[in-house]
């Protein structure tokens, strides 16, 4: 189901992947710095979740400014909360690469503000979280992660040039939130693995995300 979500004086393009039975929980999903909501990994995850009973709302927000992307993500969360078509008990925020930074930023802002949304946000899914720029491991983008308290799942490639394995494990060990990392063996930032098809890798990612959701809420 295609929708337009109001954002300031503009609209964000978004698509609902709707399960057959009435869903209790949803996932809001967005893309990285390149691409849009039709990025194959997002489409694959959205259809997998919907086929397993989880509503998925994915949206496009162009713009390479994390603060702008965060504002857009917040607008989508508010839209889904007030959406009469789907009365959800809670939602997980998810993003790929830069989208996961925006998702983390939204959760930190909402948990620190007065508008804490009665536990509407259940957790955070970070696909290929860009912990640092390539070859710039001294500057970590971990400030939001360290302040989050809801459950967090990281799915990253063990050969991701923007998320060195030991560095992410170090950050995760300092996080207050319940957290889990699933490493995709030999995958790079784009989740490509030599000798494996994209569908095969996405099958692993999708199954990990769903089983983690199920550990955190009754699906």
Automatic annotation (TrEMBL):
KANL3/Tex30 alpha/beta hydrolase-like domain location, by residue?
27-211
UniProt cross-references to InterPro entries, sorted A to Z: AB_hydrolase_fold (IPR029058), KANL3/Tex30_Abhydrolase (IPR046879), NSL3/Tex30 (IPR026555)
**Cross-referenced Gene3D superfamilies:** alpha/beta hydrolase
**Which branch of life, at top level?**
Eukaryota
What the entry lists under PANTHER family is as follows:
TESTIS DEVELOPMENT PROTEIN PRTD (PTHR13136), TESTIS-EXPRESSED PROTEIN 30 (PTHR13136:SF11)
Protein's name in the database:
TEX30 protein
Supply the source organism's classification. Answer: Eukaryota, Metazoa, Chordata, Craniata, Vertebrata
Q: What is the gene name?
A: Tex30
